[in-house]
Automatic annotation (TrEMBL):
Its main location: membrane. This is Olfactory receptor 4P4. It comes from Sciurus carolinensis. It is found in: Membrane. The chain crosses the membrane at residues 42-65, 92-121, 133-156, 168-186.
Length: 221
């Protein structure tokens, strides 16, 4: 969970940089966002996700467990796991905050700064171009809010578990990743055109079947 979650966090950061280049330096976009740089960003995201998750793994694997083996959560997160440890876990909880909470907070602040720069840049654009720029960023901002708001609620506080944690964890583990394809593909013009073509062909085929179907005549008495 933390491996793929860490990858998504870093990919969202790379997408913010991509939007900045596309909006603020459109003429240089192809040169700056080359295929090699995109591949490097994906590789760096995977490496960052691995380092983040490996740190969580080391924190949990060496803890002594001598009590119950059930946690009040739907996946094996570190905070619920600390409740099963037979030792003082305050230092471990602080390290979890430094790992997950600090990383999430720093990246969230970086994303806010990037969009502040973008918004300050588009102020000088025409209304039409400003609308296009904001429309380009809207899908990314939606995903960032759905992902980071519950994540920060859980990981920037001391190592305690609340009944609401499972509900908030649903957003960054299930809901946000599930909505990602829908949110981002609907912003893609090629995808929109493809959906329109498929929908148009479906409607035409239904109309043809209705025309070919013989009319039903009620028998006269």
């Amino acid at each position: 969970m933390h491996f793929f979650g860490g990858i998504e966090v870093f990919i969202l950061t790379g997408m913010a940089y991509d939007h900045y280049v596309a909006i603020c330096k459109p003429l240089h976009y192809i040169v700056i966002m080359s295929r090699q740089k995109c591949d490097a960003m994906i590789g760096a995201s995977c490496a960052g996700g691995f380092l983040h998750s490996f740190g969580q793994f080391l924190l949990a694997i060496f803890l002594p467990y001598c009590g119950p083996n059930e946690i009040d959560h739907y996946f094996c997160d570190v905070y619920p796991l600390l409740k099963l440890a037979c030792t003082d876990t305050r230092k471990i909880g602080f390290l979890v905050i430094a790992n997950s909470g600090l990383m999430g907070t720093v990246i969230f602040v970086v994303l806010l700064i990037s969009y502040a720069v973008i918004l300050s840049t588009v102020r000088s654009y025409s209304i039409e171009n400003r609308h296009k720029a904001l429309s380009t960023c809207s899908s990314h901002i939606t995903v960032v809010v759905l992902f980071f708001a519950p994540l920060l609620f859980i990981y920037i506080r001391p190592a305690t578990t609340l009944p609401e944690d499972k509900v908030f964890a649903l957003f960054y583990t299930i809901i946000a990743p599930m909505l990602n394809p829908l949110i981002f593909t609907l912003r893609n013009m090629e995808m929109k055109n493809a959906i329109k073509k498929v929908w148009g062909s479906i409607m035409r085929s239904k109309g043809n079947r209705l025309r070919d179907f013989p009319a039903f005549h009620h028998p006269t008495s």
